[in-house]
UniProtKB/TrEMBL annotation, chain A:
Primary residence: membrane
Protein name: Transport permease protein
Sequence ranges assigned to domain ABC transmembrane type-2 in this UniProt record: 39-268
Membrane topology: Multi-pass membrane protein
From TrEMBL, chain B:
GO cellular component, one term: plasma membrane
Membrane topology term: Peripheral membrane protein
Cited PROSITE patterns: ABC_TRANSPORTER_1, ABC_TRANSPORTER_2
InterPro entries (UniProt xref): AAA+_ATPase, ABC_transporter-like_ATP-bd, ABC_transporter-like_CS, ABC_transporter_ATP-binding, P-loop_NTPase
The protein, known as: ABC transporter
Family: Belongs to the ABC transporter superfamily.
SMART domains: AAA
Provenance organism: Sphaerisporangium melleum
The ABC transporter domain, residue ranges: 7-237
Automatic annotation (TrEMBL), chain C:
Phylogenetic placement of the source organism: Bacteria, Bacillati, Actinomycetota, Actinomycetes, Streptosporangiales
CC terms in the record's Gene Ontology section: ATP-binding cassette (ABC) transporter complex
Record-given protein name: Transport permease protein
Protein's organism: Sphaerisporangium melleum
GO biological process entries: response to antibiotic
UniProt subcellular location: Cell membrane; Membrane
Length: 271, 309, 260
């Protein structure tokens, strides 16, 4: 909804939902034609759960409780929302960086698509939409698991779901934008490293407040921090105005990423 | 033949499950010879080549390469072969030169010697100016020339080329033929497969025609044409009439009449005389072409099909 | 054994290794960040960040406790990573193995040459990591100098079966399954982050099946100067068994794929 509005602003002619849908349909078809489709899809649920069990429960047994916003939380309840946000980020980035780049450069899928009435922005929206559909499935299941393990209240989990979608859109749009700048696979090492560094220092495993002041400021500029704060705030039922600020950051990120990606695709593919 | 054959096959068979790709062929290639397998796609040429290059073992039959048995001495045989496969398998992550030096090391060639050999070969295939560059941006013809240079890196006794010019544009093909001709003149033994008759005529001293896994004819291009065709062929096209309908009216106009879907072939010793006969019978073809007989005609005669459809 | 040695020649193995190193010379700068920086960042975030809340494990601070785990885990993940897309790609996309098969290089040489390359890459990363962690004061015993050897074994024990797997599949989406069902669970539950004794008794034997766990325990014994849970010989035997079985499987998989 929000992305379509942004899209309408960006392209004077707007984006035709039918053609965006066709781009999504292509991805669904490609996934289904690959081997062991269900296994691959299913295994996506598995990964964040393993992290939750290992870090949240395993390391959690060593840590005990943490105090966040004045209340005591089990370490698992502290880590789980962060895992959720990270999973929304990595899911969106995997689809919009590795897979996107492969399709753009090697499979020449986009050249073929843009030879039809599909426009670059529709392509970008379709690819992002696809990443969202896949990612949302995973986050929804993860939220159910959290509720099942008593790590989140059902209503708060429901409130956290749209937040995870927003996280996915924001990272997905930026992932696509970065992909259009890539020269080759070697550049992906940078993305992976950057992504991992965010994962380690965005308050995922321990409160950002523990870091030296300068590092804190640095972390607060980066996107995953805002994603985790927003999702964690909702999951643990700590609603406050600051959450709106985090959400605004992510919205701006989504709009900028989408705008840039569509512009670059236009230049790169429509010459 | 005074010398022992480099390649000797008797009743050679290759099966993949129920499918018989090569169905009992006999082949013998002498040193210095340039030998070809001509046939359409699926005739069993590539399977035969892979057995000769000792990367695939025969299902049955006898095969000796350089006097050795591929099943027991594959490594020693491969050390003396140069292989240019149908699909280029160059290393895209290495530079043009590194593709040659790295490959040379697989043959146990010393580093310095590998480097010298690479320079020499790049010169030969006219890629010296691309030596430090990447492989990916090379044109199809350049890549194929690089693959051929790579096949020569161990100074092989035999060079095996599987469809060396398939997929190349005419100019690239002629450049490649010219290089291969140079090799042939130096006395290198060449074995190649092709489905282009002009390529076979250009490069092969002797060839076998394959169809459905079997050898259907063997000889020099000249002798094959003499045996299975006439010196000249007349190609006739008729506006609306189907060639098959016209064929009946032409009986005896040449030694043989072959109606194809789009044209009619009249095989004759003297093409002009045959054309005169066609006109005498009151036929008015929309186009007439008198040409020399080619291997394509041989193939058509032997199998009833064209080589490239 | 005699049959096995007939499938490998030192000269050809060296040539295959050289190809790997030539490739690495081209790629090392691009992979330098993830090779050298990530393990260190990891230590800072988990070891120091989370460690601040953990206190002591097994009588030492959490950072010193996880350093050997992260060390073995780096070797493990790198070894698996180097043997997935590269190996499948050399069969499927670049067909480099097919090019080698037309030369005197045998399937056994291809396997051993690449394994040697993987071990060298792992050793470079491991030694750099060790140097950095010694600055953090996380190495408590001189036995720590043996950890690169343990990591080489971990690399062989995990790289060899991964190569065999990569040579047996025809589509890269199977790697997603390998990562999610084998590599990530192994990394998370092999005693890197918390002692395997914390695992439910039913699941614990699975950790014993992971070559990483044996590597973690040996590395930890070495950096802390304490005895591992099993006799050293038993841990070593497990790693060697993995490496040997994996190598044989890889020989077979390579030979099968290059035939016909």
């Amino acid at each position: 909804m929000m992305t379509t509005m942004i899209a309408a602003r960006l392209a004077p002619q707007g984006a035709a939902p039918g053609r965006v849908g066709a781009v999504i349909g292509r991805n669904l078809g490609a996934l289904r034609s690959g081997p062991s489709y269900w296994l691959v899809l299913l295994s996506g649920f598995f990964e964040p759960l393993l992290y939750l069990l290992s870090i949240g429960v395993g390391v959690g047994a060593l840590v005990g409780e943490l105090t966040v916003a004045g209340r005591a939380l089990s370490y698992a309840a502290y880590v789980a929302p962060a895992m959720l946000a990270v999973s929304a980020m990595t899911g969106a980035l995997a689809e919009t960086t590795f897979n996107f780049f492969h399709k753009m450069k090697y499979q020449k899928v986009f050249d073929a698509m843009l030879a039809t009435p599909v426009r670059p922005l529709e392509l970008a929206l379709g690819e992002l939409g696809w990443a969202m559909i896949r990612g949302s499935l995973y986050t929804a299941v993860f939220l159910l698991i959290m509720v099942g393990l008593g790590l989140a209240e059902p209503l708060w989990a429901l409130a956290a779901f749209p937040a995870t979608v927003l996280v996915g859109v924001a990272f997905g749009a930026c992932g696509m934008a970065v992909s259009t700048l890539m020269r080759g696979w070697q550049d992906f090492d940078l993305i992976t490293t950057g992504q991992f560094a965010l994962f380690l220092f965005s308050g995922t495993f321990s409160p950002v407040g523990d870091y030296p002041a300068a590092v804190q400021v640095l972390v607060q500029v980066t996107p995953l921090y805002h994603a985790i704060e927003l999702v964690r705030g909702l999951c643990i039922g700590d609603a406050h105005l600051g959450l709106l600020g985090h959400a605004a950051y992510l919205c701006a990120m989504a709009a900028a990423g989408l705008w840039f990606a569509a512009r670059r695709l236009q230049r790169r593919l429509c010459v | 033949m005074s010398q022992l054959p480099l390649i000797h096959a008797r009743g050679l068979v290759k099966r993949f499950g129920d499918f018989t790709a090569v169905d009992g062929i006999d082949v013998s290639v002498a040193p210095g010879e340039s030998f070809g397998f001509l046939g359409p796609n699926g005739a069993g040429k590539s399977s035969t080549m892979r057995m000769i290059s000792c990367v695939s073992l025969p299902t049955a039959g006898e095969l000796r390469i350089l006097g050795m048995d591929p099943a027991r001495e594959g490594t020693r045989i491969r050390a003396r072969l140069g292989v240019c496969p149908q699909l280029d398998n160059l290393d895209f992550d290495l530079s043009v030169r590194e593709n040659l030096t790295t490959y040379a090391r697989y043959f146990g060639i010393g580093r310095r010697q590998a480097r010298a050999r690479a320079e020499e070969l790049l010169e030969f295939v006219q890629l010296a100016d691309r030596a430090g560059g990447k492989v990916e941006p090379l044109s199809g013809g350049m890549k194929r020339r690089l693959t051929i240079a790579r096949a020569m890196v161990n100074d092989p006794d035999i060079i095996l080329l599987d469809e060396p010019t398939t997929g190349l544009d005419p100019q690239a093909r002629h450049l490649l033929w010219e290089r291969l001709f140079q090799l042939k003149r130096r006395g290198t033994t060449l074995v190649l497969t092709t489905h282009y008759m002009d390529e076979a005529e250009q490069l092969c001293d002797r060839l076998v025609v394959m169809d459905g896994g079997r050898i259907v004819a063997e000889g020099s291009p000249r002798s094959l044409i003499q045996t299975y065709s006439t010196p000249e062929v007349v190609e006739l096209r008729f506006g609306d009439e189907r060639p098959a309908d016209v064929a009946g009216k032409l009986a005896g106009a040449g030694e043989r009449i072959d109606p194809l879907p789009d044209r009619l072939l009249v095989y004759a010793a003297d093409g002009d005389a045959a054309v005169a006969e066609v006109h005498r019978r009151g036929l008015t073809p929309s186009s007439v072409l008198v040409r020399r007989s080619t291997l394509e005609d041989v193939f058509l005669h032997l199998t009833g099909r064209t080589l490239v459809d | 054994m005699a049959q096995l040695t007939a499938q490998v020649s030192a000269r050809s193995t060296l040539a295959v290794l050289e190809r790997g190193l030539t490739l690495y010379r081209r790629l090392w700068a691009a992979s330098a960040l993830s090779t050298f920086l990530l393990p260190v960042l990891f230590l800072i975030s988990i070891g120091m960040g989370v460690g601040g809340y953990v206190g002591e494990v097994g009588g030492v601070d959490y950072l010193s406790w996880i350093v050997p785990g992260v060390l073995a885990s780096t070797a493990f993940q790198m070894a698996v990573g180097e043997c997935t897309y590269f190996v499948l790609g050399d069969f499927k996309w670049s067909r480099a193995y097919h090019a080698m098969a037309a030369t005197p290089v045998q399937p056994g040489d291809m396997v051993c040459g690449w394994l040697a390359y993987v071990v060298i890459r792992v050793e470079i990363a491991v030694v750099v990591f060790l140097a950095v962690t010694s600055l953090f004061g996380a190495l408590r015993s001189p036995w720590a100098v043996l950890t690169p050897l343990v990591c080489a074994l971990v690399a062989l024990a995990s790289a060899a079966p991964t190569m065999a797997f990569a040579a047996s599949i025809d589509h890269d989406s199977y790697f997603a399954l390998l990562f999610r069902f084998v590599m990530i669970p192994a990394s998370l539950f092999s005693g890197v982050f918390f002692p395997v004794e914390q695992l439910p008794a039913l699941v614990r034997p699975l950790a014993y099946l992971s070559p990483l766990w044996h590597g973690v325990e040996l590395d930890r014994a070495a950096t802390l100067g304490a005895a591992p849970p099993w006799p050293v010989a038993a841990h070593l035997a497990c790693l060697l068994a993995f490496a040997a079985a994996g190598t044989l499987w890889a020989f077979r998989a390579f030979r099968k794929r290059l035939q016909d």
